[in-house]
Structures are given as C-alpha cells and as structure tokens.
Amino acid sequence: MAATLAALAALTKSTLRGDPETEIHGVAGLHNARPGEIALVADARHARLAARTAASALVVGAAFDAAATPLPLLIAAQPAQAFEQIADHFSPAPEPAEPGIHPTAIVAPDAEIGAGVAIQAHCVVEAGARIGAGTVLRPLVFVGRRARIGAHCVLHPHVAVCDRCIVGDRVILHSGVVIGADGYGYETRDGIHRKIPQRGIAEIGNDVEIGANSTVDRARYGRTVVGAGTKVDNLVMVAHNVVVGEHCLLVGQCGIAGSAVLGDHVTVAAQAGLAGHIELGSGAVVGARAGVMRDVPPGRVVLGSPAQDVEKERLCLVLHQKLPEFVQRIRQLSAAVEQLTEKVAHLEATAKDDSEAR
C-alpha cells in the first residue's frame, strides 16, 4: 500500500522538502532501510546515519540540518509521533479478536467469564477463575484455579497465570510469561535442600505490560506485587515477596531477589541484579549490569558491582582505563628509585671510606 510524500505530509501535518510524488511503501530504521522506505531521525546523535541510509525519505525535527542529506524530508514538530502515524498507515493494528470460546478450549463450568471475552484455541481456564470483560486469551493460555484476570487484558500464547493470582485491568502479558510460579525457597537440613511451601500469590496492577518469558513468582506468604503502570521487558525475574512500585521500568534480563522493595518510578536497567531484602527509593535508577547489595535512597543513580553512586563509579571506570598507563609509570618510578638507592648507597660507602682514611 504505497503513499506519496505529499499524502504522508498531509497525514502528519509535516512540512515537506523534496519531491511530493516520491512513493513510499513502508517504514524502517536508518541502518536497514531500503529504497521505497522512510526512516526516522529522532535524535541529533543519529544525524550522521542520514548520509549513509538507503531510505528514500526521512522524518526529521525542525532542528535537523537539511544540508546533511539530499533525501526528501518530512519536517515535523514531533518527529517520533509523526513517524508512528506513518507506521500505523502501513501496518494498521490487527483486527480485534472475536468474542467467544473456541471449541478446543477447556473452561471450568464455574469460571466467571465477562462480556465480550475471547478465549481462543486450546486455552485452559480452571475452576473458580474470573475473566473480566473484553479480555483476550490467545491460544494455549492457562488460567489457574481461582485466578482473577481483569478487564480488557491481552494474554498472548503460552502465558500462565497460576492458582489464585491476580491480574488487573488493561494488562498485556506477552508469550511465555508466568505469573505465580513457586518462589525459590528451600531450607537445607542434613545436607538436603527441602522445599519451603509457597503459600502466597502474585498480584499485577492495572496497565502493566510484561515482556516475553518474564516471571513473577508467588510469595512465600502474602503477595508479590507489580504496581500499576509498570513496564517489564523480556527475560526479567521478579522473585517471591518482591514489591515493585507504580510506573517502574524493569529492563531485559534484570533480576530482583526475594523481598526487595522498589518505590514508584524506579528504573532497573538491563542485566542489573538486586539483592534480596533491600529497598530502592522512589525515582532511583540502577544502571546496566549493576549489582545492588544495599538500600538506594530516593532519586539516587547507581552503577557498578557492587553498585555505588554513578559519579564515583564513572571515576573508577576512567581510572580503570588508565591502569596500563599507571603500571608503566610505576615501573619507571620503581626503576628510578632503585637507581637512586644504589647511588645513595655508593655515596654513603664512599663517605665512610673517606672518614676511615682520615
């Protein structure tokens, strides 16, 4: 479905520089765009890629240096939003799922199913479960006994919401998400690791989105909580009895150990690890691959392993890069000290000989 740049300019209310009849067939990134596609320059740091891209046109902001490329430009006040409009034009949202229960789905007779719910092929909804209005269960979703799913949620294939766990309204769970697996709890007795029963639940707040193959374990007692509005990336681990505040960002492959508490608007970057039973204040930021072993005050940014204030860690990183230079300098200084020591010893010996000769 092709569109001219003139049509896209009208769609996005952008200013067009270049041939209005240029045909566009789709959107792509700067680095992998092909002729016939349009790409976004969202940041001044990416402007250098504009000279090398194979795209046929670019969406840019008003501050973009038009002399950087001969390509046609759509100049927008909000380039990212304009690009989203163009992307929606070429890839419209999928049609909503048809309400109803697929013949291959297994739904317990006493499960409560709200109006307009779609339960697709090979799903299982067990006894006492409740599914809110307008929610969609894609194929192969499992909802355990007395679990509660809110309204207008989307559970993608192979999601499991285990017994008694709670999912709020407008939640998106991507493929492979498990809500309410047993927490990692064992006691070692006589050299044998014995399982501690995990009696609690996991509770997911409204407007949460959890990426593929992430897990939120049920609590040993009480509940593991992911607060409203929080966004969780793929391959994230939230352990038993953790409390994640509202509107947090948990980025891919990070892990949060048992009973840690995160305030609101906390960011945990990729591959960071948080020890158990610590607290991160609201607005705290944990940098990528950091290892957090102790509490972090509200608003603090930490980096490194063990994590420390970001400015101190940056200084340590700079000094680490200079270690080869420092080692060479130390070797030079050591050699100089040895030479001076030899000279001093020689002078002392000479002075002693002179003294004895007198």
Task: Describe this protein's structure.
By secondary structure, the protein is an alpha/beta fold. It has 3 domains: 88 residues, MurE/MurF, N-terminal domain (Udp-n-acetylmuramoylalanyl-d-glutamate--2,6- Diaminopimelate Ligase, Chain: A, domain 1); 213 residues, Hexapeptide repeat proteins (UDP N-Acetylglucosamine Acyltransferase, domain 1); 37 residues. Helices cover 20% and strands 27% of the residues. It is built from 5 helices and 40 strands. It has a 12-stranded mixed sheet with strand order 8-11-14-17-20-25-28-31-34-37-39-40, covered by helices on one side. A hairpin with a 4-residue loop joins β39 and β40. The N and C termini lie far apart (109 Å). The mean pLDDT is 94.
Average per-residue pLDDT, rounded, comes to 94
CATH homologous superfamily of the largest domain, by name?
Hexapeptide repeat proteins
C-alpha Rg, in Å?
Answer: 30 Å
**N/C terminus separation:** 109 Å
Low-confidence stretches: none
| Helical residues, percent | 10-25%
